[in-house]
Amino acid sequence: MSFRIGATVLIDYDGNAVQSYNFKVRRILGDLQKVLKFLDTYEVDEIHAIVPYKGKGVNNSFKIFSNLSNISISTPLGIGGGITTENIKEITQDPFFERCIFNSAIFNNPRLLQETKSIMGHQSMVASIPFIINDETLMIYNSENDGFQAIEGELYKEISSNFNEIILLDANAEGSKKGFNFEVFDYIEFPIDRVLISGGLTKNDIKKAKKMGLAGVSIDNFVLHSEYSIKGLR
Questions:
Q1: Is residue 26 within 8 Å of residue 10, measured between CB atoms?
Q2: Comparing 232 with 63, which gets the higher pLDDT?
Q3: What pTM was computed for the model?
C-alpha cells in the first residue's frame, strides 16, 4: 500500500473550519467548503474531518456531516466526532464517507464500534489517538473525560481488534512545525504499516515516516497555507 499524505480539518459546532494549536487554543479558519475545496485542489490523498467534542453531553454531528456530503470533492473523506449509536445509520446511509474516526468510543463504547464495523466494514475503522509522554509514560486523550490517561495493555488488544488504522497525534506539537515525537513508537503496540502520524510534522518527519513504512501522515494547520506544496512533500 502506498504512503498517503492526508490532511486534518477540525470543524466547530457551527460548521466552521478551525485551526488548533498545542491541543488547547483554537481560532476560526474560515468557510468549511472553501477549505475542503482548497485541499481537494492541492491533491491530498485523504481528508480527516473531525468535530472535536470535549466532555460529556449531547454530541451529535449528524447535521454537520450531512452538510459535508453536499460539498463536491473527489478526495476520500473520513469523519469523526459526535458519532453515536443513535446517528450512525443516518450518517452512513450515504456512501460519501470512506472512514469513521473514533476517540472516546475506544474506551467505553464497543457497541458503537461493532455497529459501525457491521455497516462500513473493518477497513473503515480508524482510531484517533492524541498523545503526550510524561515521565516516560504514554498518556492518550479521552475526549469524553477531556483529559489524558495512561494506556493499559488490554486497551491495545481492543484497539487492534476494532480498528484497521490509527492516527497518532502529538498533542504537544499540534499546529506547529516543531517536529513529531517519534518516541511514541517505543510504547505503541500496533502494526506500523497501519499507523498514520499527525502534529508538528516537518518535511523531514514525513520523509522519516515514509522510510519507517508507516501508512502515512495527516498534516494539520500548515498544509492550509499556500506556500506549502503537497507535491513537494511526496
A1: yes
A2: 63
A3: 0.92
The neighbour count for residue 51, using CB atoms within 10 Å, is 20
Residue 76: other Cβ atoms inside 10 A: 16
> Whole-angstrom Cα distance, residue 98 to residue 75?
10
Domain count within the chain: 1
First to last CA, the chain: 15
C-beta contacts of 220-226 below 8 A and 24+ residues apart: 220/7, 220/8, 220/19, 220/20, 220/174, 220/175, 221/19, 221/20, 221/21, 221/175, 222/177, 223/7, 223/39, 223/42, 223/44, 224/7, 224/19, 224/29, 224/35, 224/38, 224/39
CATH code, 195: 3.20.20.70
Give the closest residue to 39 by CA, choosing from 230, 234, 175, 210: 230
Q: What are phi and psi of 48, to 5 degrees?
A: -105, 105
pLDDT for 152-174, tens place per residue? 778 888 999 999 999 999 999 99
Domain that holds residue 101: 4-233
170: buried, middle or exposed (CB in 10 Å: 19+, 13-18, 0-12)?
A: buried
Cα-Cα-Cα-Cα torsion 194, 219, 21, 134, nearest 10 degrees, comes to 30
Written as nine digits, the cell of 44 is: 491530498
Q: Give the dihedral of Cα atoms 162, 168, 172, 173; nearest 10 deg.
A: -150
